[in-house]
Amino acid sequence: MYLPFGDYLKGLVSWIITVISSNIYQIFRPGIKWVLRKATGLCELQRTCYCEPAGAKRIVAIEHSLRGSKSEQVKKLLEFLDRAAKEKRFSDSSSPVVSNSVRAICDIKKIRLEVHQPFGKSFSECVSLIWGLNELMHTIEGLRSTAYDAEDASHEEKLLDLWALLMPGKELDSRVSNSWKELGFQGEDPKTDFRGMGILGLENLLYFSKNYSNAALHVLSHANHPSHGYSYAIVGINLTHLAYTLWKDGTAKSHIYNLCSQLSKPCRPRLIHFHRFYCYLFFEFDKLWMREKPVNIMEFSRIRDIFEKNIRSQLADPNCLFKLNFPVVHI
Ligand SMILES: *[C@@H]1O[C@H](CO)[C@@H](O)[C@H](O)[C@H]1NC(C)=O
Ligand SMILES: *[C@@H]1O[C@H](CO)[C@@H](O)[C@H](O)[C@H]1NC(C)=O
């Protein structure tokens, strides 16, 4: 391995990490960076790739380092990458966006890639995940801002699929019907319930019922509990809001980056990762709800707040990785 000064570096870096938490670090950051660069011959990006463990810790540190860069060239490159993400140029596997930007950064930072191959590999993976997530956020935003449209046959079909999956063996008497309330919609026509979450709310509900149908039916049976019940669909849409907020404000990065880096070949963040994150939230929320045994739905805000706090504190751990392991339940 190309790492003759590994231990020396680790010592230095762990010292720095203790300093990072204080604001003093911000004042001395340029000076510390300069000293470290002189002492190790490595720039901050390289030190991060070599010393931080793969996953959220490393990627968030790389993000921080790039965004904090004083170099105009680096700033321009970041703008370019943000644009490329918006135009969805990352998901195109033949696209040279990642390799070109890694080469550009290395030119700016005077890093010779042929000498620093492990850095090149690790840094490319970080770039690919950072802007892959950026790109996915545009997709998610697109779904969220697409309102449910009863004129759109694909929306209507998804809604009817949801019924069929959650009410197996029970026909819906008509498209507009009081029966929707059995799924926890507010009125006769679910189309008005998606509101701020648009089609994203429906896609999430549908994914949960389709891919984890036992778990979804299990949760629905709790929602229909005679004394501790809640509105399945309304709560489900509200949890899309929570999932969306946690992804949008960056809180969920620990989970996403760890998830995408855990294999030997990191995968890019995809929409199914968002759907699964949502499924995890729904299942866990239901568990909390049943434990709290609320007397009525008026307690929703209180329980949702506790839930959000729990989830946020778990996500604050850079090692966080939520695992979907629904018990097989028969109801
Ligand atoms: C689960 O999700 C994937 C990807 O969205 C889909 O292709 C697959 O058919 C789903 N599985 C089931 C059992 O519905
Ligand atoms: C979800 O519920 C919380 C708490 O009651 C509320 O503040 C929020 O606006 C709701 N979001 C949606 C999309 O309904």
From TrEMBL:
Cited InterPro entries: ELMO_dom (IPR006816), ELMO_domain-containing (IPR050868)
Top-level division of the source organism's lineage: Eukaryota
PROSITE patterns per the UniProt record, alphabetical: ELMO (PS51335)
Ranges for domain ELMO: 154-315
Molecular function as annotated in GO: GTPase activator activity
Protein name: EOG090X0AMT
Gene giving rise to this polypeptide: EOG090X0AMT
